[in-house]
Amino acid sequence: MGGLLRGVAAVAAASALLAAPAQARVEQADATVSGAVTVSWRADGARGCEAAGLCGYSGSLTWQPGEQAEISFVPHFGPALFLESDAAAIVRVRRDGGATCVDAVPGDFFAFETRKLGTDRYALRFPEELSSGRCAGPSAADIASALPAATIDLGAMRRGGTRLAWPGGPLAAGPWTGEVTSTLAARLSRLRRPRANRTTRPRVPARLRGRTLYRTSVDYAYRVTAVHGGLDVAFHGLAPSECVALDACGVTGTVSLVPPSKGTLDIGGAVESVKPDKPVDELYVTGDLRSGGRVSEVLHRPGAPDCAEARTTGHVLLGGEAGRSRVDVTLGAEHVAGLELMRTRCPGPTHADVFARGALARAEIARTSLGSRHLRLTLRVGGTFAGAGYAGTRTGTVTLDLERVRARVRHSRRTL
Amino acid sequence: MRSAVAVAVVLAAGALAPAARADGFDAGSSFVIFGGSGVREVAQAQAPASVSGTITVDFHGDPAAGCAQRGLCDVSGTLTWRPARRASLSAVRFRTRKHDGLLVSLFLVGDDPRVGATTTAQTQRTGAGAACADVVTGYGGAIGGQAFGSSVRVGPGARGLGTPGDFLATRCPGPLLSDLVKLLPSVKVGFDDAAKGRRTLDLSGEGALSAGGFAGTVRSTVAVRLGHGRTAKASPPTRPRGGTKRRRELSAEYDMHVTGTAAVDLTAAADDARCAPLDACGQRGTVTLTPPAGSIETYLSAEGPASVSTARLRASLGLAGGPRPSGVRVYGAGYGSRRLAAEAVFTRGGAPGCTDRAPTGVPGISLTVGGGRLTATLQGVETDLLHTRCGGPTMGDVAGERFVARGSVPLAAMRARTVTIPLTQGRRFEAGAWHGRVRAALQVVLRREKVRTRVFREPAGP
Fold it and tell me: The pTM is what?
């Protein structure tokens, strides 16, 4: 029986691959990246550094990416340019009359944002990935906005290779005035369609031919109608051997996060079996919150004005996983590259310092409640953290009120 | 030692499954490959670990330590090394014909800069009002050792396996790891420590530095807390399941000698925003790399289906004439054990600046075949070949993952027993605070010693 089940699983998996969206319409080009980005900033009284408690700070960021990049184009979705680089951006920030904060901001996967300009023409905006890290300085959104978008013409690319460039420009964001110097460029080959794979239907083993394969899929979609509560982080600088490099000695502070107030949550999955009505054990949990989230920070350094800054959060992902009887829902999906919900323009710990694995808060619901017209999730966080330069505590509760949009259980079958 | 025990330690899925998460540790696992005759693995053990603390070096230029001849008397600062927070202690008992031995490694698991090792430097020049600040991230590494006996010293101060890189290297001036390694802590570890775990390895300590032009204090607060350990008895290698296919490999073994030099000419960026954070404004200079004397064991191999004859594989390596078959993989490299020497001579604003000479890293030469030519490439990806006490750009800044120097000869030249490959192609670089070029004047001389052929089976694959 074990061999039968393994055989069924193999045939089902191979069939799923054949059902994937047609690859023939995808166009691809090779890309090689070169150059570097240097950002310099200083606190500007005319831009309100005094109110933010950031006067006297000045700094720089340097980033030299690796060469590997890839660009593909799918009709309807537009071009997608991805750059993989494990080169960290180095941030150096001086405080007048005080110390220097030095930090490495890890890079990973840069997905350039696309905006259509016309037929076959798109703007590729630098992603919000480079920031001042744990030091005082511009946010990732500030730096991305200072780099003019590159323009790509897919029609020209189908005729031959092309070169994209992201030149620098002035930086004026929050209390900062500065400059972005960029020689960042990508050399792209001709856009072409990859050779289509000759896929064939999977060969069904003789012992399985004629058997019936039953498929069960479940799909629960919810709309987030209200969000209450928030999360709080209290932090302090660590001992001198650990705080000096980040100029965090003797500081204390708080970060408060109020999540966005609208969103969606989808929970679903599917299973195939030779037995009818096999329960769907593995479920995906995905969603996001958007519209109106805010993170605010106050940092206190003895003998200096308090630094106080706030910004909007942008989308906050929802994630989780399901067991046989419970569904675990998280605020913030785990192991998502580039996730940063803690940082403001003030110095302080990063998201990874505070929340290590990525999720900010968790809730559990019974699987039997899936499909209910209304759900209430109470996501909680607690505990302590100790990261580079900072340690502290996490507290808070976020409540999500959900209204069902769709609840669907489907059964189908086919003969092998 | 090397003739009796040829050891390579790698971090991979192996005989020991990852340790249970009851401790909250997320352990990697490792296995040790043994080569050489008469060496047998007896048992393996592994314990997950968490690492805390840092190593801090406070230093200043000191005439008694030789700062004057290096131009470093006005330099002072602090270096801080923060190791990766997750680790895995692995121990292997092995037996040779005459001895029992123990191989121990503490793997610092840093596959993400968020939890990897960082080295931070903050230095200043007295009277100049200028400061250099830098941070270098690392992805982990191993600190360990091997010995005939029942215990091994492990720690940053222990004589480790191979030739470790300088984990204190940054772009700012400062002491080398070799200046203070004797002051760094180590602790004795036995097989039972990995097998049972539940022990804290105390790597704390303090010492006075006086070497390489600098004096100061070295302070360590590093501690390694071991979780539950596990053991596994050595098991014979299992035959791969499923179908296999026969492959033929031809390997030509060479003695390689590298002579000449590669010089990195650098000039500081004119833009203050780029040069000031590293106190590089007005700086010019040259770092000259001189390869170590002595021969380097080198191989060049061709591998293909067993249906490809030995004669055709010889043609793939240029050892014989004739058409080169498709579907044959050709690869080769030479790795020595000695470090090359880097000599830095810098000026600042036209006046003499820092000068220093230091052994840096072990150079690697890769050999590739393509387009009817054999290309030899000097790379410095694994260790920073440029690092001296003067600071300056790293090899990563200069070459990244690309070549430092390279050259090629027609593949037909490999028919001769001795082949000389001039490496004269350098490169230009633009590295934030500095720009410049690599002037390569190296020669690789390959003398063929042996040619071996073997046929083996490997899994046929999915």
Answer: 0.82
